[in-house]
C-alpha cells in the first residue's frame, strides 16, 4: 500500500486571490486554476499547495483566546534572509503578527488571515 501526501489545502473566501498571494510569495506555478480551486505545484516535485473557496470561511485568530476561532494549521517557510523575505511578504499583502514567539522566526498573516512562519536556521 502506498500513501503519499499530495497537497495541503487552505480554505479562503476567494481561492484565486489567496493562490495569487502564495504564487508570488513562493514563485510556484499553477498546476490547475478554476474559479473555486487553484493548485500550485512545488518546483521540487513535493506536495502541492492548493486553495479552495469556502463561502462560510471564518478568519482564524492567532494567538487564540477563549471563544476565538483558532488556527487549524499554519505553513512554515524556510528563508535564507528573514528581513528580505519579510519585506517581500509585506509588499504582497501579508501582515506581521503582533505576537512573535521566538527568535529567528517571524509570524505573518496571509490576506485570508492564515498564519504562516518565515524562519531561518
Question: How would you sum up this structure, described in words?
Answer:
There is one protein chain. A hairpin with a 5-residue loop joins strand 7 and strand 8. This protein has helices at residues 15-26, 82-91, and strands at 7-12, 29-33, 37-41, 48-53, 75-78, 95-96, 105-109, 115-119. It has 121 residues and is of the alpha/beta class. The mean pLDDT is 96. The chain folds into two domains: 1-57, 2,3-Dihydroxybiphenyl 1,2-Dioxygenase, domain 1 (Roll); 58-121, Roll (2,3-Dihydroxybiphenyl 1,2-Dioxygenase, domain 1).
Distance between the termini: 35 Å
Indicate the radius of gyration in whole angstroms. 15 Å
Order of helices and strands: EHEEEEHEEE
Tally of distinct domains: 2
**What is the SS-derived class?**
alpha/beta
CATH C-level label of the largest domain: Alpha Beta
**Tally of DSSP helical segments:** 2
Q: How are the strands of the biggest sheet laid out side by side? A: 1-4-3-2
CATH architecture of the largest domain: Roll
Largest sheet: 4 strands, mixed
**Can you give the helix content as a percent range?**
10-25%
**CATH third-tier fold name of the largest domain:** 2,3-Dihydroxybiphenyl 1,2-Dioxygenase, domain 1
Strand content: 25-35%
Backbone shape: globular
Mean pLDDT: 96
Record field, number of beta strands:
8
InterPro entries: Glyas_Bleomycin-R_OHBP_Dase (IPR029068), Glyoxalase_6 (IPR041581), VOC_core (IPR037523)
Protein name: Catechol 2,3-dioxygenase-like lactoylglutathione lyase family enzyme
GO molecular function: dioxygenase activity; lyase activity
Keywords: Dioxygenase, Lyase, Oxidoreductase
